[in-house]
Design a protein that fits this description.
Elements (H helix, E strand, L loop, with lengths): L1 E7 L6 E5 L2 E5 L7 E9 L3 E11 L25 H15 L7 E6 L10 E7 L2 E5 L6 E3 L8 H8 L3 H6 L2 E6 L5 E5 L14 H14 L6 E5 L7 H7 L5 E5 L2 H10 L4 E4 L2 H6 L8 E5 L8 H10 L3 E6 L2 H11 L3 E9 L9 E8 L2
The structure holds S-adenosylmethionine (SAM).
Length: about 350
Amino acid sequence: MELTIDSLSYNGGRGVGRTDGVVIFVPGTAPGDRVRVRLTVRKPRFAEADLLEILEPSSVRRTPPCPVAGRCGGCSWQHVSYSAQVEQKKKILNDSLRRLQGFEVLPFLAAPAEFHYRNRIQLQIQNGRYGFFGKRSHELVAIEECWIAEPALNEKMRGLSLSDLSHNRRLEIALGEDNKLHLTTGDRDPEAALFSQVNRAQNLVLQQRILQLVQIRPDWLMDLYAGAGNLTLPLVTHFPSVPLLAAELSRASVERGKAKAPAILWRVGDVAKVLRGERPRSGSGLIVLDPPRPGCEIEVIEQLKRHRPQQIIYVSCNPSTFARDAERLLPDYRLEKVQGLDMFPQTEHVELIASLRAAH
Ligand SMILES: C[S@@+](CC[C@H](N)C(=O)[O-])C[C@H]1O[C@@H](n2cnc3c(N)ncnc32)[C@H](O)[C@@H]1O
């Protein structure tokens, strides 16, 4: 069938077209493309299709600079201009938040660099060749360079030895906080697989924006889902005399955080459980929270209401679970501001920072 693509979806980054009230998802298309597709999945309200032919290319379509874009499982949007990617991320954000009202949308923070931003890549190795897995497959797509990796990572990759390539199934190359390149071989030790932000430039922007969004003079602070203290450290530096509690599930992350900020209270454990075990503090509090994609468990929302901070700054990598959690905080909290941020150009991922204030 023939179809016009009107937008890009958060769900897998596929193009979206519509016909007779049915939404059709087509990978590899751009908003504005007129395409011919073949249906592969048909459900009452949506369908999936493969792209057969581009009848009229969209004005935002471009030739991806990377020769394996479209085959490699990494980038889903390289065939779309960066300004159009940003427009689609804004739209995804607005659509996800449409049930919420009365808040200010701050200007979207596009990434300073659309390529060469990742400080960590995980290479797959098969028969002495390296690359990434293909889309939804375990077939190797061999590469010579990765367009979204920082240049130092590509240099290291090109210098891999025969022994590196013959003795491993997987290799991770990462620029550490020490600014040195680290090569990790084989399967990752789950304890060592710590969360860390992959886009250094945008991470600095995220840290700054959190501090700029603080609207109170806090008497106490909490950083929940703190990882290894990425958002904790700027808070400690900015509010050196305010007591701070950081909570995180991974012991290895907490050990790393403790080494950097030994003076604060670190708790290893599930956020709901940590909050349950703490007595509500007096005075006005600020809680920063940065949960993983599924968002906060319902008990965390209840515990937030019990601890009643004056302000909550919620960092989210999933606008739909954020919208659900923000709704659950109503009417105890008012959503005041939301700002979108692009940590992952060339992909559908979108990050947001939101400020909520206790309602009186
Ligand atoms: C999106 S990361 C944020 C980390 C940190 N804020 C940063 O900027 O690097 C989410 C973190 O939450 C932790 N986590 C996941 N579920 C948790 C839970 N139920 N309780 C505590 N921490 C959890 C993960 O280990 C991970 O470090």
